[in-house]
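in:
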């Protein structure tokens, strides 16, 4: 037991060191999968789906047990982990265990839970590096945004309002016909931004695939989980909305879902965009949080 604990601590320490060395923050497994999705084959996706469905168990099983459960060899598991940027299965397990440690335990005090959620969300968003997204925004000749729903449209409006302060005009695309009429004039110097909850809405996925074929860069803002839009995007920005039950009878009332992370993300992105511009123009160098 002591040997396993020491091994886990060593794997965790090495993973955290690699994150700091690469200038990043610890990502959830869904985020890592999206980043490397195009490199994964069908066997890799079988392993990932098993991990997703048995997350709690995989945190504590051996590589041989996981291999048997997925009907693959231990070597295949190692290759899968390496495709995701890990040294081996040990580092992958370390990420899963770090997620477990970060999970919130909610009490009956919803306001306290909400305050804790706001605090956790802000900590994650402020640490995020927005340089890639800011570079695309700064270098684009034209910027378009498409929102796949009511809340998403509100986020798009806020995005337009914020970047207007810097004379960045963001044009909102309202539907399929408008998008199709644009495709003939789009170039690699343009930029698209998609605001979506699931990242799986058929029209959004279709738009993203067309832009991919045209080599037009695009940024996705989606809920944090494995989704098609995020895997296709040039840059993906993730948020983690949360649900809070305000009533004792959960069967009769739908839980309240906080969408604050979306609005916090775009506001922090705008501020970091200003910081990015200042760095590019030779002003005081600001260390990215």
């Amino acid at each position: 037991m002591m040997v396993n604990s020491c091994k886990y601590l060593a794997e965790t320490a090495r993973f955290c060191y690699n994150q700091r060395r690469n200038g990043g923050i610890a990502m959830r497994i869904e985020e890592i999968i999206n980043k490397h999705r195009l490199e994964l084959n069908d066997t890799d996706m079988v392993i990932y789906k098993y991990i997703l469905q048995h997350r709690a168990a995989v945190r504590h099983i051996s590589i041989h047990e996981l291999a048997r459960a997925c009907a693959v060899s231990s070597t295949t598991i190692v290759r899968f982990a390496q495709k995701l940027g890990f040294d081996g299965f040990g580092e992958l397990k370390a990420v899963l265990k770090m997620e477990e440690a970060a999970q919130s335990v909610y009490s009956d005090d919803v306001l306290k839970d909400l305050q804790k959620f706001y605090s956790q969300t802000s900590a994650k968003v402020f640490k995020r590096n927005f340089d890639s997204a800011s570079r695309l925004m700064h270098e684009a000749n034209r910027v378009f945004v498409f929102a796949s729903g009511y809340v998403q449209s509100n986020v798009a409006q806020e995005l337009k309002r914020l970047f207007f302060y810097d004379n960045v005009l963001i044009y909102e695309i309202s539907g399929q016909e408008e998008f199709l009429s644009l495709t003939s004039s789009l170039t690699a110097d343009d930029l698209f931004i998609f605001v979506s909850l699931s990242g799986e809405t058929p029209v959004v996925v279709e738009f993203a695939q067309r832009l991919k074929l045209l080599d037009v860069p695009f940024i996705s803002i989606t809920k944090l989980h494995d989704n098609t839009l995020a895997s296709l995007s040039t840059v993906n920005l993730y948020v983690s909305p949360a649900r809070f039950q305000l009533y004792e009878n959960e069967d009769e009332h739908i839980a309240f879902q906080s969408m604050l992370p979306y609005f916090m993300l775009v506001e922090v992105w705008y501020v970091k965009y200003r910081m990015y511009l200042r760095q590019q123009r030779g002003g005081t160098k600001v260390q990215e949080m």
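note: The CA atoms of residues 163 and 270 lie 7 Å apart.
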